[in-house]
What does this fold into?
Amino acid sequence: MSDLVLTLNAGSSSLKFAIFASNTPSAHAEMTGKFASIGRQPVFTVSSADGRSLDKGALATLDNTFDHEKLLALLLLWLAQHHGRHRIVAVGHRVVHGGERFEGPTRVTEAVLDALESLVPLAPLHQPHNLAAIRAVARWRPDLLQIACFDTSFHRSQERLAQLFAIPHALSDEGVIRYGFHGLSYAYIASVLPEHLGSLADGRVIVAHLGNGSSLCAIKDRQSMATSMGFTALDGLVMGRRCGTLDPGVILYLMRAKEMDATAIEDMLYRKSGLLGVSGISNNMHILQESKDPRAREAIELYCYRAASLIAGLVPSIGGLDALVFTAGIGENSALVRRLICDRLAWLSVSIDSKANSENAVQIGSEQSCVKVLVLPTNEEAIIAKACRDYSE
It folds into this structure.
């Protein structure tokens, strides 16, 4: 009987999982899968390490009555059937918000769960689902080791000035500060930089995590120095459905002139803005790139304009720029987005090779570029699995 580690990433409309061997440091999962379109018509996909689709069994047919909790219960049953000769010894969870208290992977206890529950208002779209997954596993096997891995932890290395808002001091002391997110992704990219940059890995690097949720992180000595997201995951870049940085006066205007309450404003800013709001078409970058509608192009141009502007704005936090790394769904797959962003950064001596960029190559910087430009796949699950192994030893 071999020991396995299960990683879970419960999002607002998806549930991703991966299975890793417990006794090897490999970053490659033995199995990966996910439920997509939860709340509508859930679709289950699962594949082995070599990319083969596996038998879905009872999970082949699902309907809108299956919420996160029901799907997770079915998944755990399916995994037990598929890995009957193996033993899951730990479950690692992506948890979006760890606040100021949790600076690294943490073993889940009732006290930890209570503390994480208090952070739900800071990540209302994700934290409830993250915690629901932890509780579902606890009901399945109360004695099983569960590890919470936080998207905020990687950014706790930042100096105080990078974390502060210019608001009354008492609010900062209460925890109204810049936390930053996508930390698991940045931690993985930081861990593999030496493979691609050599000695420059400890230099001045900006990583662009571009997906339905998007952010930037300025890294030096492979530690976070500054990031584009702030108190919540609403700040910074234009995203699929989220607005990114917004003049607070707009919110006051919506309250006073439009008589919108907090719930309506939250819904608009988190779910109806971003690429979807600007284009009026979709939050999916691929769909927008295929569209002939001028609003689609405007949304793409705005996305890239804001990204380039914020990349430039992060350069002072690390004193220059040695490398720019694109990762996540859009960053890894959209040659157009990478080109539009890099074209706006030409003044920083950033330039890309058109052929390498169109092929999604790892190194896409041109020979003339003074800044290394890379495309690296992220692997948050590998970081979570490592944390589980460390606790299991």
In short: The chain has a mean pLDDT of 93. The first helix runs from residue 68 to 82.
